[in-house]
Amino acid sequence: MSTIKVSVPATTANLGPGFDCIGAALNQYNYFKFSPIETETPDLTIAITGKEAARVSSDRTNLVHKSFLKLYQYLGQTPPDVAIDIELGVPLARGLGSSATAIVGGLMGGNKLAGEPLSLSEIMELAITIEGHPDNVVPALLGNCQLSVGQAGNWQICPIVWHPDIIPVVAIPNFELSTQEARAVLPTHLSRHDAIFNIARLGLLIKALETGNRDWLIMALDDRIHQPYRQMLIKGYNSLKKAAMSVGAYGVVISGAGSTVIALTSSEHAEQVSLAMTNAWMHIGIEAEALLLSIDLNGTRVVTLNADGET
After folding, report:
1. Nearest by Cα to 140 from 63, 209, 82
2. Angle CA(121)–CA(10)–CA(79) in degrees, nearest 5?
3. Strand order in the sheet with 251-254
4. Which fold has domain 3-160+296-310?
5. What's the pLDDT tens digit per position in 81-93?
6. Model confidence at 118: pLDDT above 80
7. Do the domains 167-292 and 3-160+296-310 match in fold?
8. What are 71's strand-pairing partners?
């Protein structure tokens, strides 16, 4: 069997009021190669390259490998022995969907080696089951901005049009937040007033992303479900948001569970917003990298590698 290469985009989830249901794929990627091996005493081989390679497990706890095995378990088949090569381009534990790339990469690589018995919708269901929620794995698999509504076995996935002049500026600090820590600070109950507040802004957000309407975006990116509680975990958040808004950002939101913060702005102001965000953190001693990104429209790509290149 030939080597399979899978590329999976980073994602940003929630976008303010879209808690646990909206996510968008971004043009940063993790790459996974699955090379079948034939030995009498096969051993798991996982090679990892990239900026944070030393922090990723290379044993049977590796999430890519576990997801690969999950695919074959679902099929009721014995998995082939493979060497897995991982090239990291998505920061770890920063709210940019690194775990979603591992899950989707493992499932898609396994499906290709098995002869593609599962549809994208079946793989999506498996990915959601492993991850526990759809907001990262769905756009990682399908690309674009996606609204996921439903429950296990009955998901409705709705693509959200993203206006080309809405630029996501991603600021990635040199500290992490775990999803568990970010969820622990959330309230267990919401008032009716706060629920209505978010429902209205979620509807407005969908139209604002489609049209690029500045005034709608400024109001739509507000939230009362998770951001007021999580922002206290991100040092300098208020100063960063104020700085970005002062130079033309429509809004600033926490990417996923954090610690990455994402500003939406126009192409005209994107560079200024990027500089304002990194400077705001620098003033309080936090190093950060800012990226001007775009929406990935293709989602996960799977190619077969042979002596002549990709097929």
Report:
1. 63
2. 50
3. 251-254, 261-265, 167-173, 288-292
4. Ribosomal Protein S5; domain 2 (3.30.230)
5. 999 999 999 999 8
6. yes
7. no
8. none
CA 34 to chain centre: 22
Q: What Cα–Cα distance (Å) separates residue 85 from each residue in 9, 52, 65, 161?
A: 17, 14, 11, 34
Residue 127 dihedral angles phi and psi, to the nearest 5°? -65, -45
295 secondary structure, DSSP code = B
Q: How confident is the model at residue 44 (pLDDT cuts 50, 70, 90)?
A: confident
Per-residue confidence band for 309, with pLDDT thresholds at 50, 70 and 90: low
pLDDT at res. 179: 78
Q: What are the residues facing 148 on neighbouring strands?
A: 157
- Mean pLDDT, range 205-229, rounded to an integer: 96
Structure tokens at 250: 């429509």
Average pLDDT score over residue span 173-181: 84
Residue type, 29: Y
Inter-residue contact 304 to 311 (CB < 8 Å): yes
> Is the CATH code 3.40.50.2300 the one for domain 167-292?
no
DSSP assignment letter at 283: T
Supply the pLDDT for residue 213. 97
Q: What is the pLDDT of residue 171?
A: 97
Reduced to 3 states (helix: H, G, I; strand: E, B; else coil), residue 102 is: helix
Q: Where are the domains of the chain?
A: 3-160+296-310, 167-292
User: Which residue do the tokens 């990469």 mark?
Assistant: 105
How far is the C-alpha of 139 from the C-alpha of 8, rounded, in Å?
A: 10
pTM of the prediction?
0.94
Widest distance between CA atoms in the chain: 65
The 3-state DSSP class for residue 248 equals coil
Environment class of residue 151 by beta-carbon count within 10 Å: exposed (0-12), middle (13-18) or buried (19+)? Answer: exposed
Phi/psi for 198 (5° steps) reads -75, -40
Split at pLDDT 50, 70, 90, the class of 2 is: confident
Whole-number percent of the chain with pLDDT over 70 = 97
